[in-house]
Amino acid sequence: MNYLTWNIDPVLATLGPLKVHWYGLLFALGFIIGFQIMQWIFKRENKNIEDLDKLLWFLLIGVIIGARLAHVVFYDPSYYFSDPIKILKIWEGGLASHGGAVGALIGLYLFKRNTEYSYLWLLDRLAIPTALLATFIRTGNFFNSEILGVQTTVPWAVVFERVDLLPRHPAQAYEALSYLFIFIVLFSLYKTSKIKDKSGMLFGILLSFVFIARLLIEFIKTKQAAYNSDLWLSTGQLLSIPFILVGLLLVFLAMKKTT
User: I want to staple 141 with a disulfide (CB 3.0 to 4.6 A). Which of 22, 120, 147, 226 is the partner?
Assistant: First the structure.
């Protein structure tokens, strides 16, 4: 069978000593488009646009630090702690979505301390661009030929030549498409319904949907953590469960308030 062969160089361009990676470009693009969406939301709800610049930096720093540290600690601690300078080389890949979520929550809390915004109000609005950012990040993983699926013979299997010659599930593409679908659902609900007035609902949907998708897709991923576990669930699945429970709780509480 003729499978799709993927052999794209992770480096998009080299400008002297500077290398522009597809992953970094897509990560930045996700933040830029997300920022535009938040500007539209703030204008729509008559909020101060100038607050977004400060909010962006708190979130960007929180996501990067949280995602990187979670990857280092939970997925390959021996590799990074043997040469700590590698922890700083984020452009080489290695960001964990669970840590990014925690980092974003902390960054958002630090931002809102001296503002009049409700924490859940911000979380509900940020849920929309967050789903889109996750789409761009997983697309970046696809360009990096990382976070691979297990070997398969399905017609849409992909051979990542930079890794091996085995046809594999394009797990990164599965996640990217799942997150894109979640973004469309959240954006549509925000724009066409009154769900945005149910505090915690949009954010709860984001958490539960994203991490349910993550938990299910993990079943066809290759092992990512560098250490062995006696549990039948992977590290990514175990880390997803608390987020799913919190998301479902937020949805339940938001629905209860309206009954």
Answer: 147
Burial 84-114 (b: 16+ CB within 10 A, else e): eeeeeebeebbbbbbbbbbbbbbbbeebbee
Of 130, 131, 157, 162, the closest CA to residue 144 belongs to: 162
pTM of the model: 0.85
Query: What value does the mean pLDDT of the chain take?
Result: 89
- The crossing angle, in degrees rounded to 10, of helices 171-192 and 201-217 is 160
Cβ atoms < 10 Å from Cβ of 3: 17
Residue with tokens 């539209």, as numbered in its chain:
40
Phi, psi at 232, each rounded to 5°: -80, -10
Please count the CA atoms within 13 angstroms of the CA of 30 that sit on its side-chain side.
27
Distance of CA 83 to the CA centre of its chain: 26
Q: Both tokens of residue 236?
A: 């990514």
How many Cβ atoms are within 10 Å of 36's Cβ, its own excluded?
12
DSSP H stretches of helix in 113-234? 119-143, 171-192, 201-217
State the pairing for strand pair 158-160/4-6. parallel
Rounded CA separation 181/185 (Å): 6
CA 238-243-249 angle, to 5 degrees, is 130
pLDDT in tens, 21-71: 898 899 889 989 999 999 999 999 999 999 998 998 998 899 889 888 888
Going by C-alpha positions, the residue among 78, 120, 100, 85 that lies closest to residue 30 is: 100
